[in-house]
């Protein structure tokens, strides 16, 4: 299966495929959207800022006149917005081949979503958990549909865990640990979703990927020194998008895999299947997170 220099050129024609990319108007999401639209997919940019979303869609269409790209409103800080997006999408589309849970926030000052969740856990994990669950009927009607959830090297930072005693960091907020918690939650969710689909004998696939150290606007909450270090060690967003694109399109994947860059410490390079940390394979942890995620979002998965 391994291709040490896998690139977007390996992606086959995607005519008739429908794709949703959260946060598809900038950074990694925009790079994914450009490639998938060029390959013929109908691409939905699920974005919070509709002006930027429309601008991104127009830019892609100007670059690739035959592309089909649409911006739709999705605010992952607001579960009501998530529900509205899912209803609108399912009114207009009867299939969903690829859902890329890409949007995220990284190490902001402590703040809460509209539903009272710590911002990073709320957007990076709970918002996407609700989105995927509410889109599940159309995903499961689309044979071999995929869900790709974007994690980060932060999932295995020292001390990372799911802090069930205070998931929303109401006391002693640590922006770095809150971020790594949300990225660990991403992988736990992706693996657990794939296990549940396989247990039902379904052909849908859930995968996870990370971009290594990539230059995006996600780092704008970092301090100056950390930004300079990250920039020196990082790769362009076009390269960072490749592991996600491989997870979304490689015909050889079986589900439950994790993709990242091939270079030292998975910081840079072409995408390969990589190993995730020990905690990501803890099924009891995943099941506990799943249960509380359903309770917090009030979105129950019919599997």
Number of domains: 1
At the fourth CATH level, what is the homologous superfamily? NAD(P)-binding Rossmann-like Domain
- Biggest sheet statistics: 8 strands, mixed
The order of strands across the largest sheet is 3-2-1-4-5-6-7-8
Count of β-strands: 8
Query: Over the alpha carbons, how many angstroms does the gyration radius reach?
Result: 18 Å
Residues in helix, %: 40-55%
- The number of helical runs is 9
Mind telling me which CATH architecture this is? 3-Layer(aba) Sandwich
CATH topology: Rossmann fold
> Structural class, please?
alpha/beta
Search tags:
8 strands; single chain; 303 residues; SDR family NAD(P)-dependent oxidoreductase; Rossmann fold; 8-stranded mixed sheet; alpha/beta; SDR_fam; 9 helices; oxidoreductase; NAD(P)-bd_dom_sf
Structural account:
- It is a single chain.
- β2 (42-47), α2 and β3 (68-73) form a beta-alpha-beta unit.
- The longest helix is centred in the middle third of the chain and has 25 residues, at 175-199.
- The chain has helices at residues 27-38, 50-63, 79-92, 119-141, 175-199, 224-233, 237-240, 242-249, 283-297; strands spanning 18-22, 42-47, 68-73, 98-101, 146-150, 205-209, 258-261, 271-273.
- The model has no long low-confidence stretch (mean pLDDT 94).
- The protein has 9 helices and 8 strands.
- The chain is α/β, with parallel strands linked by helices and 303 residues long.
- It has a single domain, classed as 3-Layer(aba) Sandwich (Rossmann fold), CATH 3.40.50.
- Strands 3-2-1-4-5-6-7-8 form an 8-stranded mixed β-sheet, sandwiched between helices.
- Helix content is 41%, strand content 13%.
